[in-house]
Amino acid sequence: MSFPWPSRRTPKTVAGAVFGLCVVTLSTCSVASDVSIPFRFEDLRVYVDATSGAQRGECVLDTGADDVMIDTAAAGALGMRATSVHAEHGAGRGSMATGNGGGVSMTVGGVPLEVESADVAPINRVLRPYNGLDIKGVIGAPFFMAHVVEIDFTTRALVLHDPSIFAYHGQGARLPFQFVDGDPVVQGELALADGARLPLRLLIDLGAKADLLVAEPFVREHRLLARVGPTVVEPLGAGVGGETRYAFTRLAGLKVGNGVEGTDLIAGLSVNGTLRGGGYDALLGAGFLQRYRVIVDYPHRTIVLEPREPAPVEGFDRSGAFLVANGEGLQNIVVHEVVAGSPADRAGVRKGDVIEAVDGRDVRDLRIWGARKALSVSGDTVVVLTLRRHGRDLSAAIRLRDLI
Q1: Measured between alpha carbons, how far is 74 from 70 in angstroms, rounded to an integer?
Q2: CATH: 2.40.160.10, 3.40.50.150, 2.30.42.10, 2.50.20.20. Which one for 321-399?
Q3: Are the C-beta atoms of residues 240 and 275 closer than 8 Å to each other?
Q4: Is 136 strand, coil or helix?
Q5: What would the pLDDT profile of 14-30 be if each residue is shown by its tens digit?
Q6: Could you tell me which residues come within 8 angstroms of residue 104 by beta carbon, excluding any fewer than 6 positions away?
Q7: Tens digits of per-residue pLDDT, 175-189?
Q8: Where are the domains of the chain?
Q9: In whole angstroms, what is the distance from residue 22 CA to residue 33 CA?
Q10: SS (H, E, C) 332-359
């Protein structure tokens, strides 16, 4: 379904938000912005407000999803019944029971979206400990096919353009892509410190919480674990197949298409069967994409990247403690895993510890993304955690250092 565009060629703000600088005419485009939708960007994940019937909440916006997925609980409240239930495989070693929920009418940030056939799966149950919030589902390809979607990370706004009249005349890099199994894939080249340059297929994946995530077949074929610098194996989060694990490292550089190059990238090399590949060799994730104003043009099979100045720098965990959220409102922050020999390990932090405060600040105010950010700041920094273990209060002073 194509959105009934406003008769006025001036921007229209929806979802009850006024964005000032978000809602402007872009000098880089031949047409004015039509609709601006606010989004939340936390822990390298984009969330948009969505409504269907009486169900309203946040959904993950994901170019790596070839459909719209409705969480099982939300689908049940809407009276949707999943048929043809099957095991869906994705990032993670396992699978998720996924069914066909049929057609659904919804709005994304107030903009109507008709989905001919939505998937139904318990996606929130899997993601919530890692996200630190509850979601109603995942918004994928149908939304991007209906609009040219501009993602402005500076203003935290999506700007939607009419594909039938949109034309881009700016200075950003235009990268043509192909659809592989419904996902956008561009050609790229990976630069290693030993001077090698390896061609690879990059799936543009807004839902991937990293600069680059490399699939295991590519890792094995090119013996990457033996050729890169220091690595640290940690979880990243979860996908359709459950918890994901990667050997994280820093890579010398990456070329995307013919005109975009990135340096000093944090890359996750798949381990334990996390990322199986197939029609792609690596995921180009939100950590990389946030360095640009991104225009996703599915109808014309093009993505445009305009560099942000200054480009944001995403820190990597410098503690060795991986955190998850649980409890009421997902406000309890728990140590899920501790890397052996890491600063957290040496400070006495243990798996299962409940974090009550970070440098004296209540974690209920920080939420999980704030706690993670505090453990990734640069410099000679000591972070003091107030912990609760087996009913006792403890304190751990972690002197942060680079793990990779």
Answers
A1: 7
A2: 2.30.42.10
A3: no
A4: coil
A5: 333 322 222 223 333 33
A6: 52, 68, 70, 78, 80, 115, 118
A7: 999 999 999 999 999
A8: 12-161, 173-288, 321-399
A9: 10
A10: EEEEEEECCCCHHHHCCCCCCCEEEEEC
pLDDT per residue as tens digits for the range 128-163: 999 999 999 999 999 999 999 999 999 999 999 999
Q: Which residue has the higher pLDDT, 137 or 7?
A: 137
Architecture of domain 12-161: Beta Barrel (2.40)
Say which CATH class 173-288 falls into: mainly beta
pTM for the predicted model, two decimal places: 0.89
Region of 207 (left: φ > 0; alpha: ψ -120 to 50; beta: rest) is: alpha
Q: Distance between CA 381 and CA 362 in Å, rounded?
A: 19
| Burial call 153-175: b when 16+ CB within 10 Å, e when fewer | bebbbbbbbbbeebebeeebbbb
* Tokens encoding 153: 């990370």
Q: Where do we find the tokens 């006495």?
A: 348
Cβ-based burial of 354 (10 A; exposed 0-12, middle 13-18, buried ≥19):
middle
Q: Which amino acid is at 262?
A: G
| 12-161 and 173-288, same CATH topology | yes
